[in-house]
Specification:
This protein is mainly beta. The protein is 13% helix and 32% strand. Strands 3-2-4-5-8-19-10-11-13-14 form a ten-stranded antiparallel beta sheet, covered by helices on one side. Strands 1, 6, 7, 9, 16, 17, 18, 20 and 21 form a nine-stranded antiparallel beta sheet that branches. A four-stranded antiparallel beta sheet has the order 26-25-22-33, with no helix packed on it. Helix 1 runs antiparallel to helix 2. The longest helix has 14 residues. The radius of gyration is 23 Å and the shape is globular. The chain binds alpha-L-arabinofuranose (2 copies).
Length: 517
């Protein structure tokens, strides 16, 4: 592709995300044209195209899904000045250039405002509007929430917490009616819940529940209201509207297994009175066919409308969680051989966990967490059993041993997800740090899933560019912060006084110190 062709192409796909156009074209002319071409010989969408079931939507924040793609992957917006920038592949057909995001988002908070369609159809995903089930627009994902590596490069996924979601109600070339399509997504198989509905795929164009068969999306989670599979979940299911299906009928279909690989490939295919669920490990091996057969009663013929959703149900039901790395929708029902070739392409990426520099958060380690705001560097995050409160307090070598113990935390696997952590006080109480009404408290684990969520924090690169920050697992747009010496989970700007933008990035950044106790 010549530079002129590339710019014209970029302009076309960028149009719906108008704010990005100027900057994006500038980046293309400036750096993109000379990027080294270390393209893969084919991407998933090249495989689908060769099999005459082409991608009609292709979304990824981690990589190009065509060997020749060098256009925009996603757009981020920062809180400090509300400007946006666009993340491109490092090279044609390559992995996302996450350094663009990291430098643009330094000392502030960034959301993912759009995920570009790489197929040329302009089916970009942006903030989901209100729907029949929930108001809107939905919360945008924290751009830094899901660091991972792909092909050895640091990249970011899309970490969806309840309340977040993306949509495109005005699409081109997506299957409608009873037409055939295929869909795949690479997801974090350990990040899910039983809320409705972490979906990726075909949905209603009016954001409402328009009845059985008006959707056909991949669903991932352990919601059991409609259908479910064997084990305790999560399961790959199809959201066909008014039902998540694990097989031919509602309820248990035991052939659909619990599928929870850290990186999971999930596929749904849908044709005329025929559909299938395929799943596997996105890092190795082949796909299993977990269902292939006729439509459930009441779902033949289908009445697909052709909108695209990510992280929500068809009517904007937004109480679910999950992480998305890449996904496509095809025109036509892909063959088993095609899906096998796509799975092999996905496994070649080598998706892997991103490890923080000198990661000090290993299970069983005792640490103290020192404030980094210039006001407060003598202060440590401290949990006081008598008052249940958590805040920052000055600690010195001559402090009382009870205070030293209150200022020391034992790192444990996150109660809600072992990829994250929970902090148990070293003061002998056995209590954990958890948030409640966004304030931090020290409390005993009551064994509820709510407690586990509230007590799980994900260590991330420090919001001020060094040290560490701790993202709330269930409110992924909030981080542990001190404000007026009290501990909270706080967003960079928001409705609570402690969400104040001033000093947010410093107040939410912590140095890991030797344990006081
Ligand atoms: O089919 C399950 C869910 O039911 C859909 O996603 C939503 O539109 C409806 O509430
Ligand atoms: O928590 C102490 C200070 O209180 C914080 O640095 C600031 O945000 C607030 O004024």
């Amino acid at each position: 592709m010549t530079v002129r062709q590339r710019v014209r192409y970029a302009r076309r796909v960028l149009l719906p995300l108008a704010a990005a156009v100027t900057l994006a074209v500038g980046i293309l002319l400036g750096g993109g044209a000379s990027a080294p071409s270390s393209a893969a010989t084919s991407g998933p969408c090249d495989i689908y195209a060769a099999a005459s079931t082409p991608c009609v939507a292709a979304h990824s924040t981690t990589r190009a899904l065509y060997a020749a793609y060098d256009g925009p992957l996603y757009q981020v917006k920062r809180a400090s000045d509300s400007t946006t920038t666009t993340v491109y592949p490092l090279a044609t057909g390559g992995y996302a250039n996450a350094a663009t995001q990291d430098s643009f988002c330094a000392n502030t908070y960034c959301t993912i405002t759009g995920i570009y369609d790489q197929s040329g159809n302009g089916n970009n995903l942006t903030d989901a509007p209100a729907g029949g089930a929930a108001s809107g627009p939905d919360i945008l994902a924290n751009a830094a929430a899901a660091p991972t590596t792909a092909g050895g490069h640091k990249v970011y996924g899309v970490f969806i917490s309840p309340g977040m979601g993306y949509r495109d109600d005005s699409t081109k070339n997506i299957a409608t009616g009873n037409a055939s399509e295929g869909e795949y997504a690479v997801l974090d198989g350990t990040h899910y819940d039983n809320g409705c509905c972490f979906d990726y795929g075909n949905a209603e164009t009016n954001n409402d529940d328009d009845g059985s068969g008006t959707m056909e999306a991949i669903n991932f989670g352990n919601e059991t209201t409609w259908g479910y599979g064997s084990g305790s979940g999560p399961w790959i299911m199809a959201d066909l509207e008014n039902g998540l299906f694990s097989g031919a009928s509602a309820g248990l279909n035991s052939a659909d297994p619990t599928t929870n690989y850290r990186f999971t490939t999930a596929m749904i295919e849908g044709g005329a009175n025929q559909w299938a669920i395929l799943g596997g490990n996105a890092d190795s091996g082949s796909l299993s066919t977990d269902y292939s057969g006729v439509r459930p009663s009441g779902y033949n013929p289908m009445k697909k409308q052709g909108a695209i959703i990510l992280g929500i149900g068809g009517d904007n039901s937004d109480s679910s969680a999950g992480t998305f790395y890449e996904g496509v929708m095809t025109s036509g029902y892909p063959t088993a051989a095609t899906e096998a070739a796509v799975q092999s392409n996905i496994t070649s990426v080598g998706y892997a966990n991103y490890t923080l520099p000198s990661n000090p958060f290993t299970t069983g380690t005792a640490i103290s967490l020192q404030a980094t705001t210039p006001c407060c560097t003598a202060d440590y995050l401290t949990g006081n059993t008598s008052g249940n409160d958590v805040g920052v307090t000055a600690v010195t070598s001559s402090s009382a041993s009870t205070l030293k113990a209150d200022a020391t935390w034992i790192v444990e696997p996150g109660l809600a997800n072992s990829s994250c952590v929970s902090f148990k006080s070293a003061n002998g109480s056995g209590d954990y740090m958890r948030h409640y009404n966004f304030e931090l408290y020290l409390e005993p684990n009551d064994g509820t899933s709510q407690f586990a969520l509230d007590a799980t924090f994900c260590p991330r690169a420090g919001n001020s560019g060094s040290n560490y920050s701790f993202m709330s697992y269930n409110f992924s747009y909030k981080y542990i912060r001190h404000y007026n010496y009290i501990g909270y989970v706080a967003s960079d700007g928001g409705s609570n006084t402690w969400d104040a933008s001033s000093l947010w990035y410093e107040d939410s950044t912590w140095a890991v110190a030797s344990p006081w106790s």
